[in-house]
C-alpha cells in the first residue's frame, strides 16, 4: 500500500537525519527519528513561517532546545526551502559547513538560537515569548492591533527538563501567563545512561500544572491528526503556556536500537540504517528526495509566504512612531553619552547609584530599554520607578525575574533574539557564576545583552567571603566577545552604559560598586566612549611610577599618588575601564605608554591577566578569599588602602 504524502514527508525527515549522521559518522540520530512526525505537523500545518522571508518579524519561532538532535532541524530547513542545500547536509558536522554539530544562530538561516547546553533553549524561548507579549502590548496601545501576534514553539528533551534552569524559566513563564509559548516534550524516557527513570521520576503533568501551565499529551507519536489537534488546542489557550508530552520512541524504526540509549548519540551503522529505511518503506538512495516531497513542503508554507507579504504591506503603511516600537533606530555611544546630565563633581556616589541615575535618564529617552533583576533591584540600582511587567499588563518596563539568575540570563538572550528591545539584567557580581552559561551564549550569538553586576569586591564587607567576588572579574574577562567594564566613578559609569547600549553585537558586563566613589575623571564623552579602554586620571606624561587600576580602587591610587608626590615621586594613575580593550591596544606599546617608568597594578580581584602590565610583586590583588568585617577594614586588611599602595610603590622604586 502506498504511503500518503504526509507519511512520505515524515519518512524523508527521518532518512535525511539518518543520512547526515551516517555520512559524518557522528551525531544523534535517535531524536530526529522519534520527533519527525511532530516536526512535520509543526512545519507543515501549525507554524506560521515564510522560508523566503526568514527574518519576518511576526513569524512563529521554533527552538530545538535539544540541540544535539541538530540533524532534525537541518532536514526541516532543507525540505522547507530555507536555502540549506543538500550538499550542506552531506557535510554535516564538517568544518566550514552550515550544518554544525549543534545549531548556531547567525550561521544557518532558519536557526533562531544557538542550542546545545541543555535547558538553555527552553529558557531562552521564555524570553522570546515575553518579548512578543511586551511588544504586542505596545503596538496594540499605539493602534496597530494584531501587528505582533506570533507563537514560540520548543522541542525539549528529558535533559532540558532535568536541568535546573528549566525549572526557573518554566516557573517564570507560568507566573507571567505567556500563553503563546508551546513546548513539546520529547517524552522517550531515555538518557545517555539508559532509562530516564534511573535518575528522574518527576510527574511532568503535576510539575508543569504546578507552575500554572496547561498540560496536554500525545499518546500515539505516529498519529499526525492527534499531534495536530494537540498543537491546535495549545494555540487556543489564552491563560497560560502549554506543554505537550509527546510519548515518542527514540530511534523509531531501527529494529535493534529503537527505544534504547545506544541510538542517542551514535550512528546507526550501515546495516541498522538500511533496516530502518526498509521499515519506513523508503527505497531512495541516501540524500535523494523525490520532487513530490519538496513540492508538498513548498505548498504547505505558501500560506505563510502570503501572510508575510501582507504583513509587510501593512507594516510599511504604518506611522514611523509605530515602526520605531518594533524596530528602534540604532543610536551611537556618543549620542547616549551627550544626553546624560552632568554629575556633581563634589559628591561621592556609589557606581551602582550613578548607574541607576544614568539608566533612568536613558530609559526615559529610549523606551526600548527594558530589564530587571534577580530580586535585587533595590541593591543593584535597577529599581527605576517604571511599572512592572505583569500578566494582566505587559506594558511595564521593569521585569521581576525573581530569585532566578539562571533563567534571567536566558530570558535576556531570548528578548534580544526576538528584537525590538535593549535589555539588561542585574545581580551581585559574586552571583555572575549563576548567569555565566547564558552570558557565554550571549557572546557566542553576538547579542547586545547588558549584564549589571554590583557589589564588586571585598568592600561588600560584613557578608563575608561567600558574597565577596574574588575570581569573578577574571572569569568574565577570559570569555571571548564580552565587554567587561569596571568604572572608577560616575562619569565612567555614563561612558560604560553608553558604549554598552550602543553595541548590538557583543554582550557587556557592567561592574559597579556598593561603596561611594569620588568623581575623579572629566566628563569627556568623546575620549571615554572612543577610548582605548583606559584613561589617565592623574599625573602627566612623564612619571617615576605608573599605576594601573580599575573601579573603586582608582581613587585609592590617586590618594596614594598625592602622598608620593610629597616625597618627590611623580606618579601617573591610569583608570582601566575596559581591560581587554586596553590589553589588545597596549600590550605591544606598554613602554610607549609608561615611558620606561616602573609600573604597578591595583585591583581587588585575582591578578590573572595583569602579568603583561607589571611584575607579580608589583601587583596588589586578591590571592585568597575575603573575610567578614566592615568594608573599609576588610579592604585595608588585604592591602587596599592608599597608605599600603604608597608603601608598596616606595618599595618598588627602592625608596622604602
What does this structure look like?
The protein folds into 3 domains: 5-310, Rossmann fold (3-Layer(aba) Sandwich), CATH 3.40.50; 333-528, Thiamin diphosphate (ThDP)-binding fold, Pyr/PP domains (Rossmann fold); 532-652, Rossmann fold (3-Layer(aba) Sandwich). The mean pLDDT is 95. Helix content is 42%, strand content 12%. Helix 1 crosses helix 2. A 6-stranded parallel sheet has the order 8-7-9-10-12-11, sandwiched between helices. A 5-stranded parallel sheet has the order 1-2-3-5-4, with helices on both faces. The chain is of the alpha/beta class and 656 residues long. The radius of gyration is 28 Å and the shape is elongated. It is built from 26 helices and 18 strands.
Task: Give a quick rundown of the structure.
The chain is an alpha/beta fold and 656 residues long. The mean pLDDT is 95.
Fraction of residues in helix: 40-55%
Number of strands: 18
CATH architecture of the largest domain: 3-Layer(aba) Sandwich
Average pLDDT confidence is 95
Structural class designation:
alpha/beta
Descriptive key words:
5-stranded parallel beta sheet; 3 domains; alpha/beta; 656 residues; Rossmann fold; single chain
Draw up the topology in text.
Blueprint: H1 5-24, H2 30-46, E1 61-64, H3 70-79, H4 86-90, H5 120-141, E2 152-156, H6 158-162, H7 164-175, E3 181-186, H8 204-211, E4 214-218, H9 224-236, E5 242-246, H10 270-280, H11 291-300, H12 302-316, H13 320-326, H14 333-338, E6 349-350, H15 351-365, E7 369-373, H16 377-380, E8 398-400, H17 405-418, E9 422-428, H18 432-445, E10 450-454, H19 472-477, E11 483-485, H20 490-502, E12 508-511, E13 516-517, H21 525-529, E14 535-538, E15 545-549, H22 553-565, E16 571-575, H23 579-586, H24 590-594, E17 598-602, E18 619-620, H25 631-637, H26 642-652
Parallel strand pairs: 1-2, 2-3, 3-5, 4-5, 7-8, 7-9, 9-10, 10-12, 11-12, 15-16, 15-17, 17-18
Antiparallel strand pairs: 6-13, 14-16
Helix pairs in contact: 1-2, 1-3, 1-10, 1-11, 2-3, 2-9, 5-7, 5-17, 7-17, 15-20, 17-18, 22-26
